[in-house]
# Entry
Amino acid sequence: MQTPWENRFAQRTQRMKSSAIRELLKLTEMPDVISFAGGLPAPDVFPVDEFKAACEKVLRDYGAQALQYGSTEGYTPLREMICRHTARQGLNITPDNILITSGSQQALDLIGKVFINSGDRILTEAPTYLGALQAWNVYGAEYVTVPLDDDGMITDQLEGALRSGPKFIYALPNFHNPAGVTMSLERRHHLIALADQYGVPIIEDDPYGQLRFEGEDLPSLTVVDNTFRGDAENNYRGNVIYLSTFSKTLAPGLRLAWVIAPVEVIRKLVQAKQGADLHTSTFVQMVAYEVAHGGFLDRHIQTIQKVYSERRDNMLDALAEFFPAGVTWTHPKGGLFLWSTLPEGFKSRDAFVRAVEKKVAFVPGGSFFPLGGGENTMRLNFSFPTPENTRLGIERLGWVLREMISEQNKP
Amino acid sequence: MQTPWENRFAQRTQRMKSSAIRELLKLTEMPDVISFAGGLPAPDVFPVDEFKAACEKVLRDYGAQALQYGSTEGYTPLREMICRHTARQGLNITPDNILITSGSQQALDLIGKVFINSGDRILTEAPTYLGALQAWNVYGAEYVTVPLDDDGMITDQLEGALRSGPKFIYALPNFHNPAGVTMSLERRHHLIALADQYGVPIIEDDPYGQLRFEGEDLPSLTVVDNTFRGDAENNYRGNVIYLSTFSKTLAPGLRLAWVIAPVEVIRKLVQAKQGADLHTSTFVQMVAYEVAHGGFLDRHIQTIQKVYSERRDNMLDALAEFFPAGVTWTHPKGGLFLWSTLPEGFKSRDAFVRAVEKKVAFVPGGSFFPLGGGENTMRLNFSFPTPENTRLGIERLGWVLREMISEQNKP
# Structure
């Protein structure tokens, strides 16, 4: 029986599908499946004791404030702390340049709400972050794409896409989700110069930037842009909106992230957020501030870097040992993900079906391509599974791939 | 200097204005203003000690789960608890009928995203909740309205509005925001019958329903609807989407609320929420569950009822003592708000300007009318100010109104 609601869904959501990533996450809940499918931080590194102390302090000293409604912009000491961290990365901003959001996913949604008219083209990397597509599809976004290689977005192929008049460029320069690659400094400069030349602004999504465990930090696109325009003022007025999050450094269960943007963009995003959820939990913001400030976050990030670096190395070793010839993978210098490519003609969705039978899961890479393609690719998460499980899971996945390749080679 | 972003705002947000309510809330931050403008719970009744104990327990026993990503639908024990509470109110549902949201404001936004196409008419009461208009304006909603009296929506005037083909009806049956009135049982039945006859579904917004301090609880529209269609099944499949929240019973700083709806509506709202913020903070959900379950919430609501009842009486006494003849007000039987009407021809916005000079604030009622009108009305919040401040603030407001009336009466 139909309820009266069913013929009333809006056009924008009539074809809305449950996110592949969210559905796959459900597999991680089956205890006997080794899952490389999620994007979950290692729970081992959650600073539980620090959270306990912070909750105690916040409720003891500021209980009435922490449990009350707060401002849409966000808790001021938290925004001031983000300003200090951003200054260390080479960009001077004020709290007026910052909006606290309920996770970066909300920042993507608010950006869609504020900027995307139905039919607008968005320029993304291919592959790109699935959550951005999911946020923007409901606003009627269409896509043009530029491919990636080991140095990130291939900016030499950018001009054709820019000539199609995109509303903005969406880029993940550091430890790309899903591809695990990092945009070289030279390409960052090239991207900023071309974006300026064509008058097309940029969304820089940087959830993993602090999680580098190899090589030197590269300046964010925001910093490169600010240097490019020689703007010495103490608030950012440039071409880039920057997104980052506490999900990968403190804990994703907080749903706590931030946007850095020119003041008039923040103002518009604030208005959109008023209608979307009034403000992000005051209590969560105050607790996160208590945990993070005064140097703890810096020390804690070093712990995470160490753990994730070991887990990446462990996965790389297992891949070298168990994956068959002809299968390749990226060598991420940070972040949570690694990207593997099967020989031409093999479909990672077929591998996925067989893998789940063998109690191991990953995300087939095709989902990350807005215009199709990448059928022979897969995303592997190395932050969440234990080292022992990673070794076992990659061994199982190796069997599946060997089996597929040997079937293919049979007469 | 314009940044590249400014000429790129989407049509839907080009005329988006900062919410009047949010701007007015800023007045409450000026320490010497007595504000009846906000909709803030009394911080005196926040169960701070229970929150402390709950944080301690959740982090000790479930730290890794509480700080990790969770399911979009929400924390299962919390949804099961809501099922038990809903059963006591006369409606049997399952957790599949429930979505946990980041405050009721997010529920309103998701409903707009899932149901409203640009140009759709929404049928609201006049006056109605401003946050709903703010959430739905960005999706291009237009409005038809039905007036209220002391028994709530005047359902005798509903058919004309229903004939205009609204997408849905939006109603606040209990302790209306802003009007403070409650829909009579007879009108609840009339509304449900007419909605069924015209095939128009209903959003029932019920943030204050548990905060009744006078008279008997009335069945929710959801319960009346379920009885009307004689549906005995254990999951709700009817005509009403029901919204409620922990903001007024536990604490608004959590940003924690829920939607009850037919399963296929929940499924669509879940998909919209995946793109909007992935899920509501796991930590907040688990802490709220620890505080609320096992009978504490029931006992705590009795405390709130007692405090708010006294504050309402205190405001009613002050109004009787200090407001001039010709000004009337509602007698709310619960909730947070009272609604006052000035004599015809007086503008409450003029009174507001003078009131702020005298360090007292309220919300001019005109903002709550989607199609204009109500220029001589005002909303007064009685939950937040202390009894002493309420008395002093109403005295000041009385001066302002007397002054305006006596100027009017001069030759």
